[in-house]
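A quick aside before the break. I want you to see a complete sequence-to-structure record at least once, exactly as it would be stored in a machine-readable document. Don't worry about memorizing anything.
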Amino acid sequence: MKLEIKPKPLTREAFKKFGEVVSKEGRDSISINRDSAQKFYEICNMDTNEKSGMTTLHIYIGNKREFPLHIDMLEKHPLFSQTFIPRSKEPFYCVVALGGREPDLSTLEIFETNGDQGVHYNRGIWHFPLICVKDKEEFIVLDRAGLNKEEKIIVEQVEYNMKDEEIYLVR
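That is the input. The structure line, written in C-alpha cells, reads:
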C-alpha cells in the first residue's frame, strides 16, 4: 500500500519526543556583554560523550531533493545526538521515528521547518538524511567525534532499509 505523507509544521510540542526545535521563539534570554548581545541559553544539550566522544562542529552542504520523495531508509546514531542549524533561511524537512533495533513506523512523522528553525535529534532517534528544497543549502551540524580507545572503532550510524516500503514525502 502506498502511503503519501504531507509534512506538518515543526513545533516544539509536536517534536519533543524526537528532540528539540532549535529556535529562539518562546525561549528565555539574558543580556550579556554589557548589553551588547542577547543570549538565548540552553536551546539543546548535546549528548556526545559516550565512549570517549566529544562534540564537534561541521558544515554540511545539502542537495535539492525531488518530490515526491521515497522514504527508502532511516538511520540513527546510537552514541550521540545530532543538531542541524540552517544557514540559508530556507525551509527543510525532517522525517523521524521512534524505535529500538528497528524503527517503529507507526511513529513516523514528517515536519517542515520555517527556515529559521533548526532541529536537534536526541540520541538514537531514527531519521531520514537531510532533505533540502533548494540546491547547495548550508547547515552547521553539531555531533560526535571520537574513537573508542578500547575497541578502536566507533559505531557512527545504524541504517534501516525501507526500499520495499511505499512511504513518500509529498509537498
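Two observations worth writing down. The first helix runs from residue 12 to 15. The chain has a mean pLDDT of 92. We'll return to this after the break.
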